[in-house]
């Protein structure tokens, strides 16, 4: 199993930045890829960014050029650097890992609020 703990959320003004962290523990060697998702009130959870075991990354169009997903293997931590934040980025952000065995695990979420 893999346990995930997110941190780094908070309240920021539009145009500001935040860096989210997703620290993994447990069977971290089985992690195949990690994704950051977000869910705004009344909306479906959406995938924002993914980082694969080989280091390649993907982003939703609304995050391209503003968000950067990265990984520190020594710390078993994945980061989401969010710049030029907009009020529409307000959501609870979750990380999810998918293992080589197709199991998946979610973190508890961290609130990001962007004021206009």
Strand and helix layout:
Blueprint: E1 2-7, E2 10-13, E3 18-26, E4 31-39, E5 46-52, E6 57-59, E7 67-72, E8 77-82, E9 91-99, E10 104-106, E11 110-115
Parallel strand pairs: 2-11
Antiparallel strand pairs: 1-3, 3-8, 4-5, 4-9, 5-6, 7-8, 9-10, 9-11
Distance between the termini: 40 Å
Give start-end ranges of low-pLDDT stretches: none
Number of helices: 0
Number of strands: 11
Class per helix and strand makeup = mainly beta
Q: Indicate the mean pLDDT.
A: 97
Largest sheet: 7 strands, mixed
Q: Hey, roughly how much beta strand do the residues contain? A: over 45%
Query: What would you report as the Rg, rounded to the nearest angstrom?
Result: 13 Å
Principal-axes shape call: globular
Order of helices and strands: EEEEEEEEEEE
State the helical fraction.
Answer: under 10%
Task: Name some characteristics of this structure.
single chain, 116 residues, mainly beta, 7-stranded mixed beta sheet, 4-stranded antiparallel beta sheet, 11 strands, globular
Task: Write up what this structure looks like.
With 116 residues, the protein is mostly beta strands. Helix content is 0%, strand content 59%. It contains no helices and 11 strands. The chain has strands at residues 2-7, 10-13, 18-26, 31-39, 46-52, 57-59, 67-72, 77-82, 91-99, 104-106, 110-115. Strands 2, 4, 5, 6, 9, 10 and 11 form a 7-stranded mixed β-sheet that branches. Strands 1-3-8-7 form a 4-stranded antiparallel β-sheet, with no helix packed on it. Strand 4 (31-39) and strand 5 form a beta hairpin. The radius of gyration is 13 Å and the shape is globular. The protein starts with a strand and ends with a strand. The model has no long low-confidence stretch (mean pLDDT 97).
């Amino acid at each position: 199993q893999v346990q995930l703990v997110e941190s780094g959320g908070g309240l920021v003004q539009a145009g500001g930045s935040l860096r989210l962290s997703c620290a993994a523990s447990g069977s971290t060697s089985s992690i195949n890829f990690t994704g950051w998702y977000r869910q705004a009130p009344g909306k479906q959870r959406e995938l924002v960014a993914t980082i694969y075991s080989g280091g390649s990354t993907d982003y939703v169009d609304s995050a391209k050029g503003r968000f950067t997903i990265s990984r520190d293997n020594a710390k078993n931590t994945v980061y989401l650097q969010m710049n030029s934040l907009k009020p529409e980025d307000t959501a609870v952000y979750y990380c999810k890992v998918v293992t080589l065995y197709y199991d998946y695990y979610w973190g508890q979420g961290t609130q990001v609020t962007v004021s206009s």
